[in-house]
Amino acid sequence: GSSADRPTALAELMGIIVNTGIRRPTVRVQSLHFAEKTPNETRFERRAQGGEQVLLPEVAVVARRALLDVVQNGTAKRLRDSLVGADGNAIEIGGKTGTGDHRFDTYGAHGQLLSSRVVNRSATFMFILGDRYFGTLVAYVPGEEAAKYHFTSALATQILKNLMPTLASLFDSSTQATACH
Known about the structure:
This protein is of the alpha+beta class.
């Protein structure tokens, strides 16, 4: 629950684990196609780029197993078997939960808490879906207003579960998936 854990950095870490330790370039646009069927038709397509090995493959495999265990047996088990392939088998889902109750605490000379000021509150779930998809979900309340909220990372995992019917459509016909509630 560190405020230094930026959502993009968490998603990048999930991508490294999905790619067995290789960091691949971030790509926001696959292709652009302008002025179709005109003399000025132009198409730009992304060129495949290599990646950089930043984790030993063995470390990435162990990390992936740990992420899968969080969904099978841990704090994100509400997602267990929530995405099923056309063959009837569950598509692997893994992730890491995090709840941030960020405060600025002041302590006295003898370790006693003198004051505590709420800074913000966050609920995060970084995830992998199958062997191809990954991302990060964050619920965030900034400032003193955060003192009124008591949500945990269960909120972020429930949001992902609610998105499963839409995410199921990302899987191609060979891995046709359905969401289970």
